[in-house]
Amino acid sequence: MTAQTTTAGVGIWRCTACGASFFPQRLLCARCHGDAFAPDRVHEAVVEEVSVIRHMLGQTDWQPRRIASVRTSNGLRMTVGLFDDSEPGTAIALFEEGTAPFGRAV
Amino acid sequence: MFANAAIIGVGQSAYLRRPEPTQTAATFIRDAVVAALRDAAIDARDVDGLAAASFSLAPDAAVDLAWKLGLSLRWLIQDTNGGCSAMNMLGHALRAIETGAASAILVVGGDATGLGGYAKVAANFNTVTQLHLAPLGHGGPNGVYALVTSRQMKTYDLAKSDYGQIAIAQRAWAAHNPHAVYRTPMTMGDYLAAPLVADPLSRYDCVPVVAGAQAIVVAHPDRCPRGRAPVRVRAHRASFNHDNQEGDGLATGISTFAGALWEVAGARPGDIDVAAIYDDYPAMVLAQANDLGLVPGNDLQRFARHTIGERRFPLNTWGGMLSAGQPGGPAGGLNGISEAVLQLQHRAGARQVKNARLAVATGYGMTMYRYGGTAAAAVLERME
User: Fold this and answer.
1) Which of residues 8-37 of A touch B (CB under 8 A)?
2) Which has fewest Cβ within 10 Å: A85, B50, B173, B270?
3) Structural class in CATH, domain B126-201+230-382
């Protein structure tokens, strides 16, 4: 992966009425159906499952990439790209490239 | 229970891995429509309802399809629920016939994206995929369900070979389906030796993308061709966005309605003679079967090894999409419904399940973020 502009943490959205956090962004809060959210960031997560994407339809020169399902420090589950060989159970720091979440071992 | 509506005919186009440039989703749909109308012995002029779903019909819509098929209608819908579209359209069609909104409805699904086109669909499936998944190189649904499969393996103590039991059993059924794109018998050695696509998924865990279409005809059971049993739907249920993508993906939306489905059907899982479970990935076959109550004690390992591995229960008897091919999710869902109809009408040839009277079929799809968000199921019955 080529490093573009990398920002520490991943942007999430917190319901201003009940405090519930969401990623990806929602229109109404799934808990209280409030319609106002405040931006927030989450910086750490634990890897739960990992996959190596070895084949991509329509591409012949694909280089394998690692993705993971992670549980963030505030309980959200998100899918991230991994910058390293982190395995399930590894604590990782979260980063954003554009709108895409990534992580590497702390 | 739908007393005045039934499935009276089915039809499909050829399924091709590499279609000719002149072949489009619309031409495959036409071929399936012609086959279904012939099968149902219904004249196209008598069709007054159309339900259509396709990932590759755009910029055309269902009404364009009606126009190009020469169908003047009083009932029309287009469904966008992917692997759940077929089952969803079936439910709408049954209710339309019951209420008199239409008298003969064609339910069609088909796609001809090609492999490159499918990759574009996968990378642009919704805004969340565009923003948060595709930039990771997540591999489309293969990457998503690779993570779900890993989670299921940990939760239920499953081995890679347990998924192979499903792929191998379905391949054995496919040997008797002339429309299936893969019919050569598969061994566990073949399955385990296949190259990894997205760990732990290997080639035979991923549906082969094909170009093709399926169609069924829904009408009053009295319009079923003479000498053939119409197929009635005893119960139909659906679920959309059942858990806001906050669960683990191991329970589908079917888990929210399975009890009501069986209650309305007046049947139990053990009464089912043949099942058609939407098989985009073997893990999701196990998840849906479990949600339906087909897996005693939620013992997925025993279900895979004993029930399926030892051929004790007829599951996806046309070979499933894993062997027969997936012409996009919409037509993929029609595969299972059509097979259930053929089995219940005792027209399934060499793969016929003896005396099949009751079937269950499902649809599952729309990978919104971490797993599918749409699910539906029906219990179908042979009318004597």
Assistant:
1) 24, 30
2) B270
3) alpha beta
